[in-house]
Design a protein that fits this description.
Blueprint: H1 2-18, E1 31-37, H2 42-59, E2 63-69, H3 74-87, E3 91-95, H4 97-106, E4 112-117, H5 120-123, E5 137-141, H6 146-156, E6 162-168, H7 172-187, E7 191-197, H8 203-213, E8 216-219, H9 223-227, H10 229-239, E9 243-245, H11 248-254, E10 257-260, H12 263-278, E11 296-299, H13 301-307, E12 316-317
Parallel strand pairs: 1-2, 1-3, 3-4, 4-5, 6-7, 6-8, 8-9, 9-10, 11-12
Antiparallel strand pairs: 10-11
Length: 320
């Protein structure tokens, strides 16, 4: 009998060591956080780092992370978030819209903090969005002023006739940005055409079509475009078609200029929100989504030189 009891205790101990997120570590004041990041690229990586830095600075070794990357596949986000729920994490950080949508579908009780999400109303299909979700979700937005980005394009390319908007049709927030910025482009007198790809496999072909039809392109904060930015640049630079980008990471690889936020900063703010929830028991359902505190006009020195573009003095060069 004693031998059987010892075996059972040993198995319980092994389970606790191998499944640290299943509740076995339960020490008071310690927290487990699952991070689901849609894909690896500069912007999302910076947001995840900011999030981890904020919580680690405040909690030290009292917080443990299970960080998972979905490799650009929304189905993988579903699997990851389901595993987080099964293992009983204290909070889920969802980095990018498909990750947020997967987390929302996986649990209605575990707090979810999103980041790198453009419009939460669109992402969560809430038609009467008022700034707070009313459920277990809040977070930070990566939306920079779309009218400001349109004004930047007009400032640099006042004589252009046709603007092409290049984005992934599978990303709801990209569609939202395209719809909204089209209004501003039309106010400047541009003809606007949408060019959409379904995944990274047809990025090059769609980019070529856009370059053939347009004087200048605009790419919103689109994860598939960010992941495929070098392929986009190969086509656009060969066609001598300049691109205004929605964020710094895309601009660094294929754009001439951007009105950008700091993804590290919005990730850090998301981490601060997570701390408020975990430690101070803030009600996530009433927490308003937060936005970047500042925006910066930035330019890509190499591509501006390639296209012969002279930028105004209030633009800052993107660091190498």
């Amino acid at each position: 009998m004693k031998r059987r009891l010892s075996i059972v205790l040993a198995l319980v101990l092994i389970a606790c060591l191998t499944l640290p997120f299943a509740g076995c570590t339960g020490e008071k004041g310690t927290y487990t956080v699952g991070i689901c990041q849609l894909v690896q690229h500069e912007a999302l990586d910076a947001a995840t780092k900011g999030f981890r830095d904020a919580l680690t600075e405040k909690l030290g070794d009292k917080v443990a992370f299970s960080e998972q990357n979905a490799s650009g596949d929304s189905a993988n986000c579903v699997t990851i978030c389901t595993q987080f729920v099964t293992s009983g994490v204290d909070l889920i950080m969802a980095n990018a819209t498909p990750a947020l949508q997967a987390a929302s579908a996986a649990t209605a009780t575990i707090p979810i903090i999103g980041t790198s999400v453009t419009d939460y109303g669109t992402a969560l299909d809430i038609s009467d969005w008022n700034g707070a979700s009313g459920k277990n979700i809040s977070g930070t937005s990566d939306l920079a002023p779309l009218n400001g980005q349109a004004a930047m394009l007009h400032e640099l390319f006042p004589d252009a006739k046709t603007v092409g908007i290049l984005y992934c049709s599978a990303e709801a927030n990209s569609k939202y940005q395209a719809t909204e910025i089209t209004k501003s482009f039309k106010e400047f007198g541009y003809t606007v055409k949408d060019f959409t790809f379904s995944d990274s496999n047809d990025v090059a072909a769609v980019t070529q079509s856009a370059c053939d039809a347009c004087d200048v392109l605009y790419i919103p904060t689109d994860n598939t475009a960010a992941h495929s930015a070098e392929a986009i640049n190969n086509v656009a630079s060969g066609a001598k078609t300049p691109i205004i980008a929605g964020e710094e990471g895309i601009c660094r690889k294929c754009g001439v200029a951007t009105l950008s936020i700091s993804y590290y900063d919005i990730g850090y703010a998301a981490g601060e929100m997570a701390y408020e929830i975990l430690v101070n028991k803030a009600d996530v359902s009433t927490m308003a989504v937060r936005f970047a505190p500042k925006f910066t006009k930035e330019y890509n020195k190499d591509l501006c030189q390639l296209y012969g573009i002279t930028v105004p003095s209030d633009y800052v060069a993107i660091a190498d």
